[in-house]
């Protein structure tokens, strides 16, 4: 199985996990969570809005979309063209629906499961994995949790950087992620992360 397929498999498993999430945009103490929005310079890196499933997003400019479906998840992948500095960058959105009457882990645990699955699927290619603490915020009025991850490509000793966001929409769990490998990996995530912050339900 190709590495990109393995990523989609583990993300689909994450997105299929049912959980209860507060979409009010408030912390437990009543204070409001920070809204996550792309800045003006990042927005200039994005194409026009694209609708898919029940949702919409502004993908990075020049990225092309492919779709795949299983019984419990739909996978939407936007991919850049070939690059001299490394492999193409992908922006992956997974929309998963759990079996009827199934209740799974909290939103935090759903993200943790996705990150662990991602690491397990790529451990043969990357080493020295690290993950940032989870953060909570709001995109288009909906609660999200996110974390960043980093590793080193074993073959060429190149840095890899990535992001993963998770949220819910009714019974559906939604995962959005991107990663880049190469000397400019941090910069490579600027457009995909800005795209994630444009995700909404029209």
Overall description:
The strands form 2 sheets. Strands 3, 4, 5, 6, 7, 8, 9 and 10 form an 8-stranded antiparallel β-sheet that branches. A two-stranded antiparallel sheet has the order 1-2. The termini are far apart. With 202 residues, the protein is of the alpha+beta class. Strand 3 and strand 4 form a beta hairpin. Helix 1 packs antiparallel against helix 3. The radius of gyration is 16 Å and the shape is globular. The N terminus is likely disordered.
Topology:
Layout: H1 3-15, H2 40-43, E1 50-52, E2 55-57, E3 64-69, E4 73-79, E5 90-96, H3 107-122, E6 126-131, E7 135-139, E8 142-153, E9 158-169, E10 172-181, H4 185-188, H5 190-196
Antiparallel strand pairs: 1-2, 3-4, 4-5, 5-10, 6-8, 7-8, 8-9, 9-10
Helix pairs in contact: 1-3
The biggest sheet amounts to: 8 strands, antiparallel
Radius of gyration: 16 Å
Report the portion of residues in β strands: 35-45%
Question: Which spans have pLDDT < 50 for at least 5 consecutive residues?
Answer: 1-6, 15-24
Query: What sequence of helices (H) and strands (E) makes up the elements?
Result: HHEEEEEHEEEEEHH
C-alpha end-to-end distance: 35 Å
**Fraction in helix:** 10-25%
What's the tally of helices? 5
Assign the structural class, choosing from mainly alpha, mainly beta, alpha/beta, alpha+beta, or little secondary structure: alpha+beta
Overall average pLDDT? 83
Q: What form results from the Cα inertia axes?
A: globular
Q: How many E-type strands?
A: 10
